[in-house]
């Protein structure tokens, strides 16, 4: 594939783009702004308390290559300021010399009124130096995706003043839950400063998820404590850094869900708060007539084929990694970032390569949401070395196997598909990710913030989004869910039992699959959103995590903790590389497949749609851990089955480790079975064994 730009020295890495924004020095501060089309740029300084009172205006000088600069004693820590930019008229330009604009590189914002803000100079000397990162290897990483506010808003052991805040996430009670579950990384929905769209405000709703970024450097102020908000942006930043430090002290990494693909300026005619007024043609994808090329579905798309936009993204990532101390980034609609000037995606786009090759970002985890809504936008498996990706193919196949296939079988009398495609996902999705990238390129998930929760996935056949104000038109229509015989709440004990086992099968599959597992917060104890599969606009009891649990929820949590622990204890479940037939690959898992009779799977059995039972034998090829071998029994049919444990050379027994059948994991008998033993399983079940001896 031809590269869109030479990777030997991308132009956006030139020193001319260094030190954009405000840099403090002995003579005050220097402000540097990029605008390739501007005819003039002004610094506007405001009173500290009356943010409508302009106290000074200074011109910036064009120093070449689109960079405008001014050094002035008026720029000091705490200065409130804005930009005014003028330039030519034209289809692709939207300059207005009267509009007050945010500095794209501002490290702090202060509100004026709804929809209007001022930039503020943050003194880096008042912030907290990042602490040492946990640096968890990818193969040991277990991600916990969470909304910062919703996770802590109702936690009874967190002081009310800290509910829904950065400090709340860093509180010992929250960390106790995370470490008790065994996760190694928290992936936070956006905490960059964001705004609610006017359309939602008109309906009395809010942008809860935060995918509407106002500024790429400033933490979202509403997630700070009242004390920090009163003290100002420096204190808010310190609170974020202290949260990161507290999680690091507990061995937990922090990954940020970041939205660089579009901004809160929405489509033309909507707010002109920053990039649109500074250089519309330099920051947004457009047709020649000035209409936006919207590959994000959000009104605009940031044009990372331009040097200024690419450097803005890279500098923001560097800032959050180096100053705030975060350990990784999940890039929303990352395919947009990899589009060239002709709007075509390239895996070797200079920005995508810079993010994983930048010396300042080594060891930082990079995760792509590998799609957008433009032409050629679905790119799962299409990113390059150094990237991991959300694997929607894994999500869909696992849901099909345990839910929609079961629903279909009840209706039609026979299953629509056998176990083959499910097995491929279980073993690391080698059909999607190249041998060079290996199974750790796949971030596996069954649920995420977007869609049904785990509990709702087994409780609803259709979405229930009327509360979103769009007549139930929003949200996915194809969910691959199954209500097990009743839509939503029910008192039927059989239906409830089937739902609980389905959750255990789904969660068990996630934790026992090759790849990097991601848990959606609250799924470990069966959180519900009452069938809403697109709850982005609800900052309420609907979306906040509840911490008072019924007995069955505590049972599910016990299963979740057990599964995470077993994953860490058994390296055969978390290979770093794909195995090969003709040679030993270090840190791979050598896989063999058996049918329910304990015999090697035949081609006929692989292609048989009625064959829903499989034995997954994975043996590690260790580099730095003890040898390990597991056997996972998968039964994806509602009819009971008897499974014969395979007779294999050198294998003396199978130690039972976990089963999805009992309500609690401690009800699994700690028993060693002999090769050839017959195991009886009820309908739809997973059972995990350790193969003895460990070297097989």
Automatic annotation (TrEMBL):
GO BP annotation list: glycogen catabolic process
Region listing for Disordered, in residue ranges: 466-493
Glycosyl hydrolase family 13 catalytic domain: residues covered: 145-567
Origin: domain of life: Bacteria
One Pfam assignment: CBM_48
Keywords, in A-Z order: Glycosidase, Hydrolase
Family, similarity comment: Belongs to the glycosyl hydrolase 13 family.
Protein name: Glycogen operon protein GlgX homolog
Species: Microbacterium dextranolyticum
């Amino acid at each position: 594939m031809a590269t869109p730009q030479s990777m030997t020295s991308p132009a956006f890495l030139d020193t001319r783009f260094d030190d954009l924004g405000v840099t403090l020095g002995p003579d005050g501060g220097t402000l540097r702004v990029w605008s390739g089309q501007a005819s003039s740029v002004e610094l506007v300084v405001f009173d500290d308390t009356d943010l409508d009172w302009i106290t000074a205006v200074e011109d910036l000088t064009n120093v070449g290559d689109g960079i405008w600069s001014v050094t002035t004693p008026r720029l000091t820590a705490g200065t409130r300021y804005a930009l005014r930019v003028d330039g030519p008229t034209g289809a692709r330009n939207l300059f207005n010399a009267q509009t007050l604009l945010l500095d794209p590189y501002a490290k702090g914002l202060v509100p004026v009124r709804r929809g209007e803000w001022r930039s503020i100079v943050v003194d880096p000397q008042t912030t907290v130096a990042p602490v040492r990162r946990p640096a968890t290897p990818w193969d040991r990483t277990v991600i916990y995706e969470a909304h910062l506010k919703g996770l802590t808003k109702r936690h009874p052991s967190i002081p009310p003043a800290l509910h829904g805040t950065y400090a709340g996430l860093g509180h010992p009670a929250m960390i106790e839950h995370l470490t008790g579950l065994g996760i190694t990384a928290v992936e936070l929905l956006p905490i960059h400063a964001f705004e609610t769209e006017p359309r939602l405000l008109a309906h009395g709703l809010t942008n809860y998820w935060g995918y509407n970024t106002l500024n790429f450097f400033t933490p979202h102020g509403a997630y700070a404590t009242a004390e920090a908000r009163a003290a100002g942006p420096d204190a808010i930043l310190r609170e974020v850094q202290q949260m990161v430090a507290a999680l690091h002290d507990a061995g937990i990494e922090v990954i940020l869900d970041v939205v660089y693909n579009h901004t809160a300026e929405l489509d033309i005619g909507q707010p002109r708060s920053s990039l649109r007024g500074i250089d519309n043609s330099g920051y947004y994808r457009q047709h020649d007539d000035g209409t936006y090329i919207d590959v994000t579905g959000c009104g605009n798309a940031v044009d990372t084929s331009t040097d200024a936009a690419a450097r803005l993204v890279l500098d923001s990532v560097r800032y959050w990694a180096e100053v705030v101390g975060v350990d990784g980034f999940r890039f929303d609609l990352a395919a947009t970032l990899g589009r060239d000037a002709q709007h075509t995606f390239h895996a070797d786009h200079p920005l995508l390569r810079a993010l994983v090759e930048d010396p300042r970002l080594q060891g930082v985890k990079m995760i792509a949401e590998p799609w957008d809504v433009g032409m050629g936008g679905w790119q799962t498996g299409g990113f390059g070395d150094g990237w991991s990706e959300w694997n929607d193919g894994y999500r869909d196949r696992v849901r099909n196997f345990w839910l929609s296939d079961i629903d279909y079988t009840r209706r039609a009398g026979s299953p629509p598909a056998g176990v083959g495609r499910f097995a491929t996902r279980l073993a690391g999705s080698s059909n999607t990710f190249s041998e060079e990238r290996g199974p750790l390129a796949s971030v596996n998930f069954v649920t995420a913030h977007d869609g049904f929760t785990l509990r709702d996935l087994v409780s609803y056949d259709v979405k229930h989004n009327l509360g979103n104000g769009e007549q139930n038109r929003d949200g996915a229509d194809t969910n691959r869910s199954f209500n097990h015989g009743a839509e939503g709440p029910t008192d039927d004990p059989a239906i409830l039992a089937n739902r609980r086992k389905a959750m255990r099968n789904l969660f068990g599959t996630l934790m026992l699959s090759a790849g990097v597992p991601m848990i959606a917060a609250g799924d470990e104890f069966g959180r519900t959103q009452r069938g809403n599969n697109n709850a982005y606009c609800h900052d309420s009891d609907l979306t906040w995590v509840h911490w008072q649990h019924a007995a069955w929820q505590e049972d599910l949590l016990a299963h979740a903790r057990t599964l995470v622990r077993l994953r860490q204890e058994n390296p055969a479940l978390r290979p770093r590389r794909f195995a090969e037939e003709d040679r030993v690959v270090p840190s791979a898992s050598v896989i063999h497949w058996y049918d329910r009779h304990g015999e090697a799977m035949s081609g006929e059995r692989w292609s048989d749609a009625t064959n829903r039972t499989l034995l997954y034998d994975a043996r590690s090829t260790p580099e730095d851990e003890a040898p390990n071998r597991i056997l996972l029994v998968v039964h994806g049919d509602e009819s009971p089955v008897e499974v014969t444990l395979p007779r294999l050379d050198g294998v003396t027994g199978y130690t039972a480790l976990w089963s999805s059948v009992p309500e609690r994991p401690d009800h699994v008998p700690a028993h060693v079975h002999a090769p050839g033993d017959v195991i009886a399983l009820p309908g739809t079940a997973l059972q995990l064994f350790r193969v003895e001896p460990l070297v097989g």
